[in-house]
Each structure stands twice: as C-alpha cells, then as structure tokens.
Amino acid sequence: MPDMGTMLAHWAERAGPHSDGALLPPHHERCLGCGLDNPHGHHLQVHRRGDGVVADHVFDERHVGAPGVVHGGAVATVLDDLFGFLPYLVGTPAVTRQLTVDYLSPVLVGVSYRIEATVTSREDRKVFVAATVSDFDERTVATSSAVFITVDVEHFARHGGVSGGSPTPPVADDHRDTGREGEMGQQRG
Ligand SMILES: CCCCCCCCCC(=O)SCCNC(=O)CCNC(=O)[C@H](O)C(C)(C)COP(=O)(O)OP(=O)(O)OC[C@H]1O[C@@H](n2cnc3c(N)ncnc32)[C@H](O)[C@@H]1OP(=O)(O)O
C-alpha cells in the first residue's frame, strides 16, 4: 500500500491532463476497483473518452451472486470506481455521496460489458454523474447515477491516513469458522 503522502502527492499528476483515449492511472495500486495489486479487485482499465470515461470489463467467478449472474454489489463497485475517474477530468478530488443503480437485466459472469460514465451537471461542490452498462449488442443492462462532492485532497489523509496497512486485516472472533453454523439463526428463532 502506498503511504498517504505519496498518494496525495500523486493526485495532481494523476489528474492529468489526459488526452482523449488515454488510459487513466488507477486511484492507487490496491484500489478495489482499479488497483492492479489487489488480488480481490476488478483491475478496471479506464480510458478517457471525450468528457467522459469508458471501461470494457468482464466480471469473473469471484463476483458471482446467483449462479452465473454477477452480484449487484460488484456491479455497484465497478460503477462507483468508474465514476471515481471523472474527478481526474473535473480537476478536483471528489467522493461519492450517493450512488443509485438500476439493474435492468442480469449482468452475466464471463461476458464483456462496456461501461461509460460522464458528468451530467455541476452545482457548487456537487458533481452529478451518470453511467450505462451495455453488452456488445449495445443492449443496456444497467444504468447508474451518483452525486459526488468535491473535497480537498487532505480529505483522504484525514480519513484514511493508514500507511503500510495490512492488506488482510485480522478476522474478528465473531467471524471465525467455529463449526457452529446456524447458531445465530437458532438464537433468533
Ligand atoms: C486518492 C484518490 C482516491 C479516490 C478513490 C475513488 C474511489 C471511488 C469513489 C469512492 O468510492 S469514494 C468513497 C465513498 N465515499 C465516501 O467515503 C464519502 C463519505 N462522505 C463524506 O466524507 C462526506 O459526507 C462528504 C465529504 C461527501 C460531504 O460532507 P461535507 O460535510 O463536506 O458536505 P455536505 O454534507 O455539507 O454536502 C455538500 C453539499 O452536497 C449536498 N448533498 C449532499 N448529499 C446530496 C445528495 N444526495 N444529492 C444532492 N445534494 C447532496 C449538500 O446538501 C450540500 O449542499 P450545499 O453545499 O448546497 O449546502
């Protein structure tokens, strides 16, 4: 994990300018959406396209919900992360305040989807963004909108200033495999 100072110093560099079509740098190497060093991550590859961003993405078995169908949370993760590239183009850091996803059709494991996002409007610190997820027949399977709020770059230091943190936090006692499956349900019953 890069230390917070390095991450903050890189913000301006990562924010561009980026030419149309350019591959955009990941938020950081262990980011769940786009970090290449996160073994649980989506490894999203995001390009600038005009005033928006685009990624072609294949969800895999790690992201399954119902058999063969991508978990809705995984879809939301990728959408949120893609939205998180728009601040590079806006030129100021911003974080998600509200995220809405309309799941129109099942998103399937092992299928390539094109995900496109753009800024729809701005109002003071509010950046309104929207995205579509389409299959290669150009059928829209999900749409999303979000409200991002611009922050100063120190926001990340204030709230996440752990440098060199363990990538695998210790498992809390409550979550360990105790062989007592079903106990919670019994207690509730
Ligand atoms: C190093 C770079 C790394 C980047 C990684 C990107 C990863 C992908 C994106 C993410 O996942 S970001 C992580 C998830 N999001 C967060 O952790 C944010 C948590 N929330 C906060 O930290 C604060 O709530 C936040 C900084 C967003 C806002 O707090 P503030 O106290 O600064 O602002 P405030 O609550 O006053 O809201 C600002 C304005 O937005 C308005 N607002 C809030 N929610 C709204 C909403 N839902 N719709 C419309 N407007 C809204 C609010 O009314 C207000 O309007 P006015 O300025 O006109 O008064």
Compact overview of the structure:
Belongs to the THEM4/THEM5 thioesterase family. The chain has helices spanning 4-14, 72-83, 86-90, 154-160, 183-188, and strands at 47-49, 52-58, 94-103, 112-123, 126-134, 140-150. The protein is of the alpha+beta class.
Features:
single chain, 189 residues, Thiol Ester Dehydrase, Chain A, binds decanoyl-CoA, Thioestr_dom, disordered C terminus, lipid metabolism
Descriptive overview:
- Belongs to the THEM4/THEM5 thioesterase family.
- InterPro entries: HotDog_dom_sf, THEM4/THEM5_acyl-CoA_thioest, Thioestr_dom.
- It catalyses: (9Z)-octadecenoyl-CoA + H2O = (9Z)-octadecenoate + CoA + H(+); hexadecanoyl-CoA + H2O = hexadecanoate + CoA + H(+); decanoyl-CoA + H2O = decanoate + CoA + H(+); dodecanoyl-CoA + H2O = dodecanoate + CoA + H(+).
- One of its GO terms (biological process) is fatty acid metabolic process.
- With 189 residues, the chain is α+β, with helices and mostly antiparallel strands.
- It has one domain: Hotdog Thioesterase (Thiol Ester Dehydrase, Chain A, Roll), CATH 3.10.129.10.
- The chain has helices spanning 4-14, 72-83, 86-90, 154-160, 183-188; strands at residues 47-49, 52-58, 94-103, 112-123, 126-134, 140-150.
- A 6-stranded antiparallel sheet has the order 1-2-4-5-6-3.
- A hairpin with a 5-residue loop joins strand 5 (126-134) and strand 6 (140-150).
- The N and C termini lie far apart (43 Å).
- The chain binds decanoyl-CoA.
